[in-house]
NERD domain-containing protein (Morus notabilis), 320 residues
Amino acid sequence: MWVEILCGLIIYRLVRCFFYDDDLLDLETSDSKALFSVADRLEKLYGGKAYLGLRLPDADTATKQNIDMVLVTKGEAVVVSVKNLSGFVLVNPNGSWVCENKHKTEHHPDPVEEAKKQALVLESYLEQRGVILPEGYLSCKVILPNPKCCTLQPNTFPSEVITHDQWTQLKPEPKSMFSGWIKGAFRGGKKEMQESIEQKLNFVLSTAPMWDRLELRGNKYILGEFLEFKGKQEDLQALRNVKRSKVGRLIIQKTSMLGLAHSTLQVLYSPRDYRGEGASASEWKEVVVRSSTEVLFQPENSTKVREFKLSSVVSMSLSA
């Protein structure tokens, strides 16, 4: 019996070594997973398009302002801050939050004020690119999606906060519940104006600075900065053109097994299109590299550089 258990543990470790990355397992509870999960649900509930991981210039601080998400739907845009907190959350009189769990106590500046500041930065950036939003078009929300997040006094939270209980019960609003500006626009025969703003907004956000995005097998995503590839010299030479100045996206197409130690990957990459129109199928380039090739990627809000096997990558998007 003990021999069977020992053999089982050895097999498990071998399978985990060859087919799983520790980094992939760590991402199961990451903030990136929560962010993408919220974006997916919001798009399903309200339609429209969610833009994640924006990094917009902030004139007041001369730095980049990180924005979790901007949701663009018909007639409105919402800056969404996702707080993946776990534990008991309390609101202080000054608006700051305290999150207590069995491991530690965390203090957070007022998330609603932070979201409002992000909305101002977004408005300024849009104006610089020629998009003037009508009054009331842009709003902000703070979402607490973690089921382990408890709010003992939900009434103390501002109206901009969506607690976990509210998040689980969230339903799409009836299509007749437009904002006051949209009602006026339709009555005034300005539907074309609204559609024009939405079109411009989507174009600007799709070409705005943002974090690089790594999609891993098992529907896992991570935002951060792509640094370089690591591997055999001939593989690095084949991937020499995959740099952010030239490439916007790459996809791992398929794997050819020529023995476990010599398996190869087909990598497709598209030339960067600064018009934001995307590359056609005929423009995709192809290279073949060893599956042992790695991607060096630094996650957002982390000082640690992680190495992901290219065989565990589904796609990678690079910001201009």
